[in-house]
Amino acid sequence: MTVGVLVVDDSATMRGLIAAALKRDPDIEVLGFANDPLEAREQIKKLNPDVVTLDVEMPHMNGIEFLEKIMRLRPMPVVMVSTLTQKGAEITIEALELGAVDCVGKPAPGNGLTPHEAFADLAEKVKAAARARVRPYSGPVAPVERDKNYAAVGELILAIGSSTGGVEALMTILANFPETCPPTVITQHMPATFTKSFAERLNRISGATVAEATDGARLLPGHVYVAPGGAAHLEVISSTHPVCRLRESEPVNGHRPSVDVLFESIAKLNRPSVGVILTGMGRDGAVGLASMRKAGARTLGQDESSCVVYGMPKAAFEIGAVEKQVGLSRMGPAILNVCSATAESQRSV
């Protein structure tokens, strides 16, 4: 199936670079261009594209305002193209929360990216977006009544991996987390500079303290550690107490940080753990989750109907790595229940 794309950007140069990256893939057809949301609205009606690539900052109406209108009135797959700045990252996280399927960073003077590097995986993200389950935007994540009596769970570590659609999934899950949640490590596939803003957003809605992981940070109950994008893999190592380790090495499964690397490090710890694999394109995390389960961990996977892209959870389920599949709306409480049961079983041994 050929994927038809509308490219929306106020820069003619950037429209050309995006189109060139997409046209290298024979399964993608660039249907047309728009230089602002007003023109884009007419082009969507005229061309009926499968996917829209959308710039964040444009004249007449910014990309966020336009995206919200799209997701409320005519939900469709959107891939955001954003500047790799703190402001651009904050806006992009908001876009992903609104329902954009994925994001890529723009090449720009000073960020060290050539157009080829910046848009290397754009075509794959666009094709994944075309297969995504896009839902109407129903408003921000609602406040959650958290369990005030939830107890910290000893030595247990919770590890979560996610990719495409993971922003919505993680926000939904962490909104349920109380101040006494188990130490939690997360690898979410996301460009460098975006993960800090994402961690800050999660911190505002969760009872837990959420931050980007730093090398040597000690894992503590009530804290969530998000792998920084781009430069290193997040692992957990332990001598007397588990700590975060940021290891610079080649991408694994095409990703850095990689979910497989995180899960494999947890499997080697020989301590109680729970692994969770969420929505995402590809297979990253499947083998690592299988290693965790083989080592005695409890494992959960997001079910097909609630995934934006049922790739990573499907791959894990098919090789027997997932003990139980759970819908997103029930995943937060399910994780906490499994963590409590795992800790209790360890205490009774």
Describe the structure.
With 349 residues, this protein is an alpha/beta fold. The protein folds into two domains: 3-131, Rossmann fold, CATH 3.40.50.2300; 157-348, Rossmann fold. It is 37% helix and 20% strand. It is built from twelve helices and 14 strands. It has helices at residues 12-23, 37-47, 63-73, 86-98, 115-118, 122-131, 166-174, 194-205, 259-267, 286-294, 312-318, 328-348; strands spanning 3-8, 28-34, 51-55, 78-82, 102-105, 157-162, 184-188, 209-212, 223-226, 233-238, 242-247, 273-277, 298-302, 324-326. The strands form three sheets. The protein has a seven-stranded parallel beta sheet with strand order 8-9-7-6-12-13-14, sandwiched between helices. The mean pLDDT is 91.
The CATH topology of the largest domain comes to Rossmann fold
Strand order of the largest sheet: 8-9-7-6-12-13-14
Proportion in β-strands: 15-25%
Q: Report the helical percentage.
A: 25-40%
- The N- to C-terminal Cα distance equals 54 Å
CATH architecture descriptor name of the largest domain: 3-Layer(aba) Sandwich
The best one-word shape is: globular
Total domain count: 2
Q: Please count the beta strands (DSSP E, at least 2 residues each).
A: 14
Sketch the major β-sheet.
Answer: 7 strands, parallel
Tell me the series of helices and strands, N- to C-terminal. Answer: EHEHEHEHEHHEHEHEEEEHEHEHEH
Spell out the CATH superfamily of the largest domain.
Methylesterase CheB, C-terminal domain
Give the overall average pLDDT.
Answer: 91
**Poorly predicted parts:** none
SS-derived structural category: alpha/beta
Rounded to an integer, what's the Rg over CA atoms?
20 Å
- What is the count of DSSP helices, taking H or I runs of 4+ residues? 12
Main location: cytoplasm
Domain CheB-type methylesterase: 151-342
Subcellular location: Cytoplasm
GO molecular function: phosphorelay response regulator activity; protein-glutamate methylesterase activity; protein-glutamine glutaminase activity
